[in-house]
Amino acid sequence: MAVYLTKESKVLVQGMTGGEGMKHTRRMIAAGTDVVGGVNPRKAGRTVDFGDRAVPVFGSVADGMRSTGADVTVVFVPPAFARSAVTEAADAGIGLAVVITEGVPVHDSVAFTTYAKARGTRVIGPNCPGLISPGQSNAGIIPADIAKPGRIGLVSKSGTLTYQLMYELRDIGFSTCVGIGGDPVVGTTHIDCLTAFEDDPDTDLVVLIGEIGGDAEERAAAHIRDHITKPVVGYLAGFTAPEGRTMGHAGAIVSGSSGTAQAKKAALEAAGVRVGSTPTETARLVLDLLGNRT
To answer: Does 249 qualify as catalytic in the annotation?
Structure first.
């Protein structure tokens, strides 16, 4: 089992024929992802050779879905076009849109996440590394060779820390790792992923990675307290950040005690979450809970 993305997922890539799209489509295919098409209105009808697979290019997401049965799209388009790309995908009725693009204006993110949700399309991102169900499928830019299939679920604001925890726990393995993105507005939240992992019979424990700024982790803590029965281990980036400063991701804005790492740690621990002070310590907490300390 996995959440959101499985070996059955059929993936389109909007922006596949661009430099980043080409590079990461090749990596997704190498990881076993069933990439069934690209989308570029100016190159419709062509095919792109990725060695073991020739991938057709369609003029629209709707055309690609009709021809291939695609149910996932990965978006590698410039920030100015992200809103129209996601809107097009939602209008076509695709189930999942993974928006890798960074630098998307916040008002565009608000518009397309709201629009997609109303039409039943789940958005992950923007400004995210995507998600991977190791051994099954990889939609985005997460390296596929740093983890194996297992029974840990991971949800993270930070792409780099997603990779770090995957590497730290590579011998245990993951059901699905979801990088939700660190922008102020994202389509899928910690709470969404926690709920999905709670419902997944093959996920035994969840790792939650947050960072300073906003109140997403505090809201996640309340949800864990009231609705999550599986153990959760947390890690928070930003303990050494000065207050009143914007640090890193656009969402990491701290004012006074609101949004600080210490406040988030306290909220999570009050909900029963064990919080590590470093990625390595966080991994040790996971091993302790799983009874796999070596």
So the answer is: yes
- Cα–Cα distance for residue pair 225/137, rounded to 1 Å: 31
Ordered alpha helix ranges (H), 8-133:
19-30, 61-68, 79-92, 106-118
The active-site residue, picked from 24, 190, 223, 249, is 249
Give bridge partners of residue 73 from the DSSP assignment: 12, 97
pLDDT (tens digit per residue) in 213-271: 888 999 999 999 999 999 999 999 866 555 555 555 545 555 545 578 889 999 999 99
Name residue 205's beta-bridge partners.
152
**Mean pLDDT across 189-206:** 98
Q: Which residues are part of a known binding site for substrate?
A: 163
Query: Which residues fall in the annotated binding site for CoA?
Result: 17-20, 43, 100-102
Q: Rounded distance, CA 140 to CA 100, Å?
A: 7
Continuous segment of H or E residues that includes residue 275: strand 274-276
Question: Which residues make up each annotated binding site?
Answer: 17-20, 43, 100-102, 163
Contact 79, 105 (CB under 8 A): yes
pLDDT of residue 214: 84
Count of helices and strands (H, E) across the chain: 9, 14
High-pLDDT (> 90) share of the chain, % = 86
